[in-house]
Amino acid sequence: MSRGHDHGTRASRRHLRPMTVAFGLIVVFMVVEGIVAWWSGSLALLSDAGHMATDALGLGMALAAIVAADRSRRGGRRTYGLYRAEILAALGNAVALFVIAGLVLFEAVARLSAPPDVLTTPMLVVALGGLVVNVVAWRLLRHGAAESLNVAGAYLEVVADLIGSVGVLAAGAVIAVTGWTIVDPLVAAAIGFMILPRAWQLGRRALEILVQAAPKEMDLAGLSSQLSGIPGVVDVHDLHVWTLTSDMEVATAHLMTGEGVDPHPVLDRAQVILRDHGVAHATLQVEPESHEGCAELSW
Question: Which residues contact 182 (CB under 8 A, 6 or more apart)?
Answer without folding.
Answer: 112, 115
